[in-house]
């Protein structure tokens, strides 16, 4: 029996010719990631158990992004703990304020991710890198500590769902709409313990930014990872970023899948996930009259240049509705500069948006856009759980940057085509 | 090893943001952090819970963030075991890695009600509902995972192996 993309990568990294779903393996990892919230807990664990060395100075990335620039003294202490640890161990890929970005926007941009690599991170959205044909998945701080000490991690080989993509998306339909549509279809545990593998002739219509958004939200369907076939779009993206040898793994023709789901991209409408689960999706046409107080455009899901371009295209010459605060957060320093040069930041400022340095801030209710009781926000982020962005009685509606921008202008959830 | 206590029952898709909200993740003191456990869906949980008590959920318990703070605060509140129909995979790993016993048992999740007295035998996977006089059986841990639990966590297991080799 043939293997899926995930099986092939895991087999290679475990030094095995073949692996089967359900098999427990110990594999070599290419990169271990942590952030300012999860890394301090991992450092505590390493110290508690007396591990004094890390497996590699270049095989670890630590990105301060959740509560930076530090929101309070406690957050500053967490950042300092990471900074001291990185200095002590000579961690090469340590990203601090002024050079950082939101981790899952930053690592692919900096060429730290290549096809066929095995990447683990103490952040659930580590699954993002599957967009480049890597196997990447989130885990916790103790796992991070173990991986930093040994360069290895245990895995249960997942079964896979194959998503066969066809057709071309409609105007204003992005990777965000596709993944929200899929989560609405299979549910927040529809891919529990499984891989989500994307391929098919429709793939060529999805930009790298679209794919990063889709792989990013595999976890919102319960997925262990989301992985895309490597094609010309992938190769064009990594050109000039990745200078090391890499191997692109395609699935075998006779690979076994738990399910095969066909997705006609041309049939998908701009899609919104209503509170309080990402599976509560509706096409924007059926959103009804939902008045909003805030819009957030950014995050590891949708803070890339293509996302800002889509929002700026709609906001050009328009104003954010008087009743709405619109917060725009470029994902990395490089994206920020690119957005300035392209004129997007001027467009946002002219429209009445607040523009921030990169941070995860509002997505997880940390700071930089906390909601009051009863307030509603359209956000390009990834979760709309109870209390996620602030008060327990506030509401988050997940959408694409285009829907978010259109909604900011209208003051209610709106179809980008109506602008 | 056995656990006995009162059950706190919750529904499906109990996410890590309600187990421990992100606004609390700047707190490093474990006792203080634990005092916010479940507060967004059950303000009285931390006041009512006693050492040994159990948490029972439905499908996809612990979905969302990778924060290890979630199983950590449940354990810190003295909870002896979490039983659910299914667990989100990162929560599952994290619980095992920090030594919080968790069991998948759909029948137990359906039958056990909030406030029931329940006894769990981790060696056999047998869950006894004292209040209702019922018994349910959970699948035992695979040997690889049992090794981590027996070593009282992943890093101890690695240490032990390293010393042996």
Automatic annotation (TrEMBL), chain A:
Residues reported to bind [4Fe-4S] cluster: 300, 360, 363
Pfam families: Aconitase
EC numbers on record: 4.2.1.33
Chemical reaction(s) catalysed: (2R,3S)-3-isopropylmalate = (2S)-2-isopropylmalate
Keyword tags: 4Fe-4S, Amino-acid biosynthesis, Branched-chain amino acid biosynthesis, Iron, Iron-sulfur, Leucine biosynthesis, Lyase, Metal-binding
Domain spans labelled Aconitase/3-isopropylmalate dehydratase large subunit alpha/beta/alpha: 21-411
Recorded metabolic or biological pathway in which this protein acts: Amino-acid biosynthesis; L-leucine biosynthesis; L-leucine from 3-methyl-2-oxobutanoate: step 2/4
Assembly: Heterodimer of LeuC and LeuD.
Protein family (similarity comment): Belongs to the aconitase/IPM isomerase family. LeuC type 2 subfamily.
PANTHER family: 3-ISOPROPYLMALATE DEHYDRATASE LARGE SUBUNIT 2 (PTHR43822:SF16), HOMOACONITASE, MITOCHONDRIAL-RELATED (PTHR43822)
Protein name: 3-isopropylmalate dehydratase large subunit
Record organism: Anaerotruncus colihominis
UniProtKB/TrEMBL annotation, chain B:
Record carries keyword Protein biosynthesis: no
Domain (Aconitase A/isopropylmalate dehydratase small subunit swivel): residue spans on this chain: 42-104
Pathway this chain belongs to: Amino-acid biosynthesis; L-leucine biosynthesis; L-leucine from 3-methyl-2-oxobutanoate: step 2/4
GO BP terms: L-leucine biosynthetic process
InterPro entries in alphabetical order: Aconitase/3IPM_dehydase_swvl (IPR015928), AconitaseA/IPMdHydase_ssu_swvl (IPR000573), IPMI_Swivel (IPR033940), LeuD (IPR050075), LeuD/DmdB_bac (IPR011824), LeuD_type2/HacB/DmdB (IPR011827)
A GO molecular-function annotation: 3-isopropylmalate dehydratase activity
Stated role: Catalyzes the isomerization between 2-isopropylmalate and 3-isopropylmalate, via the formation of 2-isopropylmaleate.
Family to which this protein belongs: Belongs to the LeuD family. LeuD type 2 subfamily.
Protein name: 3-isopropylmalate dehydratase small subunit
